[in-house]
Amino acid sequence: MHKKHTHSNAYDFEELVAYSPELKAFVKENAYGNLTIDFANPKAVKTLNKALLKQGYGIEYWEFPDAHLCPPIPGRVAYIHVLKDLLDASKLTKNISVLDIGTGATCIYPLLGHAEYGWKFMASEVDQDAFNNAQTIIDTNALNAFISLKLQKQQAHILTGILNTSETITATMCNPPFYKNEAEAIKTTERKLKGLGKHNDKVIRNFSGTAKELWYPGGEKAFLHNYLYQSSLLKDNCFWFTSLVSKKALVESMEQSLKKLGATQVKVLDMSIGNKISRVVAWTFLSDKVQDNWKV
């Protein structure tokens, strides 16, 4: 767990209910007499995360259709902290601008990144309904001066059509689709529900999620390698390109591809939430001299 992580301790459900009374309907005692919720219940999970946003980050409005992916706040803010450490190590501390690739209906990374560190964000989204919902969240929380949205009109594109050659940004961040298709997503969810002690004929994802949020033709590997290639077309426009990578086995192929594409640095940054270990891969195409000029 990151040293700056707000959620390193157990949830204080009494305090969370004070911030968000609607959570009370889902809070119960477990066998050990501790307060908890049913983490296999999508509505309970969504209500908990809304409460966490109010309590820790001052986000009062965070509404989105139940069908869309409900991002777990602790995991999302962990990425924000890892990115902050990367920028600090590169002496990038002022006028930070970040592109969030595939922000989703919840716009979660821009909300957290601005709340924690005051960063400005550009956020892309391929789904029109998700785009519209994210815009409503931005408008309602009066964050238009800090977060701007761009609609990605070509589903196969990631950076192309969003970041143009006349723009420069400090970093990108991305939580790629992990699955190749719906069947793979359902199989993973079945394992997860079994781990939570739930055995139902009908599979329900406790964090929900639409097709565009959860799977991509060819899966995570295909998405990431498309991302790597498109980043190589904008070598001078971004200091650090980054992405979450769920499968450790993918890192080696990413490193090989980035070497061929001309990356000057590749970093693999560990990220842990509880017992879950994940990683962020970061890369840049800038020479040492250009990096030094960038920091001035």
Concise overview:
The chain has helices at residues 13-19, 42-57, 73-89, 108-117, 128-140, 182-195, 211-214, 219-232, 250-261, 288-295; strands spanning 28-29, 35-36, 97-101, 120-125, 147-151, 169-174, 238-245, 265-273, 276-284.
CA-based shape: globular
> How many domains, in number, for the residues?
1
Question: What fold name goes in the CATH topology slot?
Answer: Rossmann fold
Helix content: 25-40%
Give the end-to-end Cα distance, rounded to a whole number of Å. Answer: 32 Å
Model description:
Strand 3 (97-101), helix 4 (108-117) and strand 4 (120-125) form a beta-alpha-beta unit. Helix 1 crosses helix 2, helix 3 crosses helix 4 and helix 8 runs parallel beside helix 9 (250-261). The chain has a single domain (65-295), classed as 3-Layer(aba) Sandwich (Rossmann fold). With 296 residues, it is of the alpha/beta class. The chain contains ten helices and nine strands. Helices cover 39% and strands 18% of the residues. It has a seven-stranded mixed sheet with strand order 5-4-3-6-7-9-8, sandwiched between helices.
